[in-house]
Amino acid sequence: MNIECPHCDTGNTIEFAENISCHKCQKSFAGFSFRKITGSIFSTGLVLVGTAIIGQKIDREFFEADRYPSAAIYEIISYCSNPSGVYLTKKMQQEMTYACACALDKTMPDVSGKDLKRQSAEFVELFSTNLKSCR
To answer: Could you tell me which residues come within 8 angstroms of residue 33 by beta carbon, excluding any fewer than 6 positions away?
Structure first.
């Protein structure tokens, strides 16, 4: 049996390995080599981090909905729910906000967040149509 020293990394041969056995199954350790594993922890960590990064990129590209930036959503909902800036009752404000959110949810699959600036005319037309159906 070969055992690597954890202090100096020198291989040591034990000749009486057939007399050393497992306490549970009673099988001999003869013919096996044992050494301290240090590099595999680093390698495993590196693989896990790499997999996590790749998984996030795949999720962002293929599985996560193409959402608009938070600032754009806030601006669209704010302007839609009170375009004239006049005082509305809380109930009217809530109803308008709900209708605007509904219209935005229906519009987002047709005009992606990446194409929002480029297709602004198409967005306004679709959003207006969807807003009428949500009211």
So the answer is: 1, 2, 3, 4
pLDDT digits (tens, 9 = 90+) for 100-119: 999 999 998 888 877 788 88
Q: Following DSSP, what letter does each residue of 20-60 receive, concatenated? A: -B-TTT--B-TT-EE----HHHHHHHHHHHHHHHHHHHHII
Q: What is the spatial distance between Cα 48 and Cα 130, in angstroms, rounded to a whole number?
A: 44
- C-alpha triplet 53, 55, 57: angle, nearest 5°: 70
User: Using an 8 Å Cβ cutoff, are 88 and 96 in contact?
Assistant: yes
Cα 26 to Cα 133: distance, rounded to the nearest angstrom = 76
Among 133, 113, 111, smallest CA distance to 122 is for 111
In angstroms, rounded to a whole number, what is the distance separating the alpha carbons of residues 37 and 30?
20
- Model pTM greater than 0.70? no
> In the predicted model, what is the mean pLDDT of residues 30-57?
79
Closest CA to 80 of 97, 102, 105, 68: 97
* CA count, 13 A, side-chain hemisphere, 5: 7
In what side-by-side order are the strands of the sheet with 11-13? Answer: 11-13, 2-4, 33-34
